[in-house]
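Protein folding task:
====================
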Amino acid sequence: MMISCAAFAGQFGYIADSPFVIIGGYHVDPAHYGFYFATTAFALMLGSLTGARILRAGRSPGAMLVIGGTTLMLGGTLVVIGTRSDIGIAGLMAPLVVFFFGIGITSPSATALALEPVPHIAGTASAAIGFFSTLAGVIAGYETTKIGGSSPRLFSVVMFVAGTIVAALAIAGAVLRRRQRMRESRRSSVPRLQQRRA
């Protein structure tokens, strides 16, 4: 759920502040803004489709979180670099495509793993995930526009922080799941040893 919240924070920070950054910061014609927004929407859709194919190929949702989280962190880092370069709007949009591709990979698997331990209250759990993710998005959107305004550099910091949080949580979750599997395998191996001795 925390991964979903962090991903939504980055996504809604972009949705709220991108008109100010793209139009006000990069002086793009307002009539062309929709094309830039559609680019990131397409990247999000492509990430979801790619994630689904990788899952069908046998990767676990936990592995998808690490892949998606790493992609998000890479995208956030590239946004910081790109907005501090002299290549203009491409320095913002190309990294954002990477960032939203990572969101498309991450979000479905994060929801699936959050619901996995509580199938008996799946509806309540799904509602809680939706509520807290949306709340994180609202706060991020408000604060991004309030603090960052039309500054691409301040906007890039939000993308970087969101991507880094997602990656850190995904990696920490993978480590914890691995330790849990190791503990379970040790517990299951003890009765087998006892049976062999008997």
